UniProtKB/TrEMBL annotation:
The keyword Cell wall biogenesis/degradation does not apply. Belongs to the MICOS complex subunit Mic12 family. Its main location: membrane. This is MICOS complex subunit MIC12. Component of the mitochondrial contact site and cristae organizing system (MICOS) complex. It is found in: Membrane; Mitochondrion inner membrane. Component of the MICOS complex, a large protein complex of the mitochondrial inner membrane that plays crucial roles in the maintenance of crista junctions, inner membrane architecture, and formation of contact sites to the outer membrane. GO terms for biological process: cristae formation. InterPro entries: Mic12.
């Protein structure tokens, strides 16, 4: 009869020890996982989402119609006048003055030759 009681008590002791160590293993695992989740949460909140712009809610899209207009007829007239002045100055700068001078010189020489021929006939 003593063998049965000792066997029963040994089984209870073994089962109790396995249950205790399994509970301790689960508890340590739970603490480890909790610690890792807290560290991950800290990394995400402190490093990834540290910008204030990423934490605030996005602003709604502006769907209003934007257009520009002139102040009035006077401003429009000034703009047209300024555009014409700029065009005239650009045309003036685009003239090839050397070529224009050569062409004018040739025309003046031919004109002066014609006048000189009319005044003084050529000798043959």
């Amino acid at each position: 009869m003593g063998g049965r009681i000792h066997g029963f008590l040994g089984g209870v002791l073994l089962t109790s020890a396995l249950t205790y160590y399994t509970g301790e293993y689960i508890k340590k695992n739970k603490e480890f996982v909790s610690q890792q989740l807290k560290a991950s949460n800290n990394i995400i909140n402190e490093n990834i989402l540290s910008d204030a712009s990423s934490r605030k809610l996005p602003e709604p899209e502006d769907k209003s119609i934007q257009y520009t207009s002139r102040a009035g007829v006077l401003e429009t007239s000034k703009d047209i006048w300024n555009n014409e002045i700029i065009s005239a100055v650009n045309w003036l700068y685009s003239i090839d003055w050397y070529k224009w001078g050569v062409v004018a010189d040739e025309k003046l020489v031919s004109l002066s030759d014609k006048i000189a021929e009319q005044i003084v006939p050529k000798k043959n």
